């Protein structure tokens, strides 16, 4: 199995729980740390799928690395390599599919409820719950691209997620951990204070209240979403995630992944 390409743009917005999930299931990956000087790949043929994480930059900023990542996503779309976008990554996926990305009416920062739409694709990606509590930190919003289905919507931002075949764009974060959220709040404390007048922006105390419990619930959702996304990459993975697991695992499916 070829590795999954993961594009990271900020040290505190790393792959987090996604990385732990991939390692748990022995899925190969490669992190491109753009913030540390790595150059995003251009060719998607070298990878089984592409993940784009969050960023303090905007997709319309015209930076060279953003243009290169957009070219990577367009190549992945051409080759039908599944794409998973978190926040900035969801915006860049939308843009790569011809959608518009613009400033949201209000910034949204903190924990907030989103609703799952009634499309079959939404239940497949998000499970049977109609309401989910997710973590948000964004100022922009994406348009649902032509041909895609809106999977999630929220009160402060209408388009919180969309799906198109094996590709999923999210205007939220599944990959965060309790540690990364604490670090994010500490690093961007001034931003939180600047926007405290907005009802869509929680205080640091509100974000950190019962943090471990909220993150644990978020990771249960992430398990489901990441499994669905990986099943779009490999039939071997589909068989693994859809069949009863042995109590202590087994080498059979791991060996198949290496072929």
From TrEMBL:
Q: Which Gene3D superfamilies match?
A: 3.40.50.880
Q: Which InterPro entries match?
A: ChyE-like (IPR044992), Class_I_gatase-like (IPR029062), GATASE (IPR017926)
Keywords annotated in UniProt: Glutamine amidotransferase
- At the top level, the lineage of the source is Bacteria
Query: Do you know which Pfam families this protein is assigned to?
Result: GATase (PF00117)
Q: Write down the PANTHER family for this protein, in alphabetical order.
A: GLUTAMINE AMIDOTRANSFERASE YLR126C-RELATED (PTHR42695)
**Lineage of the source organism?**
Bacteria, Pseudomonadati, Pseudomonadota, Betaproteobacteria, Neisseriales
- Where does the Glutamine amidotransferase domain start and stop, copy by copy? 44-179
Indicate yes or no for the key word Cytoplasm.
no
Query: What name has this protein been given in UniProt?
Result: Type 1 glutamine amidotransferase
């Amino acid at each position: 199995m070829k590795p999954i390409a993961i594009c990271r743009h900020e040290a505190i917005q790393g792959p987090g729980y996604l990385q732990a999930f991939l390692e748990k299931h022995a899925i190969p990956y490669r992190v491109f740390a753009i913030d540390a000087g790595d150059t995003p790949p251009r060719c998607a043929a070298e990878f089984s799928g592409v993940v784009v994480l969050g960023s303090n930059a905007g997709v319309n900023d015209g930076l060279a690395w953003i243009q290169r990542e957009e070219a990577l996503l367009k190549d992945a779309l051409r080759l039908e390599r599944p794409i998973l976008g978190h926040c900035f990554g969801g915006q860049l996926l939308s843009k790569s599919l011809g959608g518009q990305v613009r400033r949201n009416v209000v910034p949204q920062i903190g924990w907030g409820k989103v609703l799952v739409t009634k499309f079959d694709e939404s239940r497949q990606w998000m499970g049977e719950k109609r309401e989910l509590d997710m973590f948000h930190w964004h100022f922009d919003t994406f348009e649902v691209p032509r041909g895609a289905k809106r999977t999630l919507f929220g009160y402060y931002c209408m388009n919180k997620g969309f799906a198109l075949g094996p590709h999923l764009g999210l205007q939220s974060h599944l990959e965060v951990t309790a540690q990364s959220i604490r670090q994010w709040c500490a690093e961007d404390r001034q931003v939180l204070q600047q926007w405290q007048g907005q009802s869509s922006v929680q205080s640091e105390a509100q974000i950190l209240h019962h943090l471990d419990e909220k993150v644990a619930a978020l990771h249960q959702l992430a398990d489901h979403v990441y499994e669905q996304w990986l099943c779009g990459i490999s039939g071997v993975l589909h068989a693994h995630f859809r069949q009863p697991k042995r109590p202590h695992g087994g080498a059979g499916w791991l060996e198949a992944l290496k072929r």
